[in-house]
Design a protein that fits this description.
- The complex is a heterodimer.
- Chain A is mainly alpha-helical.
- Chain A has a domain of 142 residues.
- A two-stranded antiparallel ribbon of chain A has the order 1-2.
- Among the domains of chain B are: 103 residues, no CATH class; 30 residues.
- Chain B contains twelve helices and no strands.
- The chains are: A mainly alpha, B mainly alpha.
- At the A-B interface, helix 1 and helix 3 of A face helix 10 and helix 11 of B.
Chain lengths: 209, 298
Amino acid sequence: MKVESATPSPPGKPRVEVVPTEARGIQGHPAGLISRTIANILDLGLVIAFVAGTYVTWAGVKFLWQGREFTRPTPGFARAFAFMTVVHIVYFATAWTTSGRTFGDRLMGLRVVGRSGRLLALGWASMRALLCVYFPFGLLWAGIDRRHRSVQDLILRTSVIHDWLIRPVAPPEVATSDDAGRAGIDVQTSVADEADDRHAEPVAGLDRQ
Amino acid sequence: MVMEQIPIHEGQPFDNVVHLPGGTESDDEPETTTGAAPVEEPAIGALFGEGARIIGGFISTTSSAITTALREMAPPPEPTEDEDGFDEVPRTGPSPVGVATGAAIGLTMQVSEAAVRAATAFAETAGPFVSWMTNSSTVRRRRSDVEARAEALNDRWTKERPASEEAASSFAGRVLPELTNAILDKLDLTQIAIDHLDIDRILDSVDLDAVIERVDLNAVIHRVDLAGIATEVIGEIDLPELIRESTGAVTSETVRAVRMRSAEADLFMGRIIDRLLMRKSANDEPEGSDDSSEASTG
């Protein structure tokens, strides 16, 4: 679908486009496997760093507490893995329900949104986090699916889109895909348009540029 | 208008010229014989006729203008409520005042024409007798005395003419401005200009670019409250919100490049998958769309 007006001007104050010109065409469009994989790797590294930091902190406190009798804490792989899983789930759920993006998502300019383009509720975000952590390979389906939906997205009807703004804006009524050609990026199919894959359309209300 | 209907013969001989014997065609009048093509002077009767018509036209024009002004000044008649509403017949035709004025003018002109005809007939009848009377020696002597007296009066007028004209000019110079101001005070010149001037046509004839070139825009800008305008603009665009958004959107070159390259890689991989699965690319638009021609991958 091609809409003439690229920026639906709200009746209130005028909006100034802050997204770089070359990236305006992909705003609101679903992100592919590579972008999401990079974001997940960054998130995984952050979680591992947090767990490692927790371990170091725990060891330091234990050293101060035990003094000469200090022995290195050995929680075991299972406990460490379980702790890391919980941290991962809580981190994902919190990030997705508050801003729609984790640290990796923010670095890659991605955002997890629901079917209507809005942020996920806490329960929905928790379920998605659970599925992502316990079944990470579901992400691979995003490389095969025409609209870049992972298994988690298919189950929970969510999507990951390109959104470079720092926080989501209330979705306007009109969604556009006018600037796709200028950005040198093809307009990809959308999760919002499930009827016909050939009529590419961004996620409803999120193509703000 | 009556004035437009009055035939005024400028420099053309009249058809109904009455020639008095003797008098104007005498050899004593050098100015009528020196010209290569002597212009035949109009007869007095014709002049009286034209004068009567002109005066009648003036009277008609003035009276119609006064009548129109009086009619506009008079309060409009209040509409009478007819209970039945069927027998009301709209008044048409000229007003009694207009009819009376027109009748008076017509009568005046008719009387004037009759008087002119009578004077012409009298001149034609009494012409020979008058000519005989003016050629007698007594009359000639009297006539020369009268001419000498007239020349003396003319010389006196010629001497006093500059002073008189200067006095008249001075008087006019004092009176005319006040008179003009008094008239202009009564007129709404702006409304007159709007009603009678084609302002668009005037503007079309003005070279606005040349006007702008003559304007010192810097001086104009300096007179503008730029700070106030900037403050208002910043208030309108919600600058704090803009800065907040920009912190996420305006990233470093490295981050921006990583984002764009990964997005392009996604598209590239999507096309490879489409080819492997032998399915039509999701980027293919229906016929008639120009997106496909613009789409490209990096």
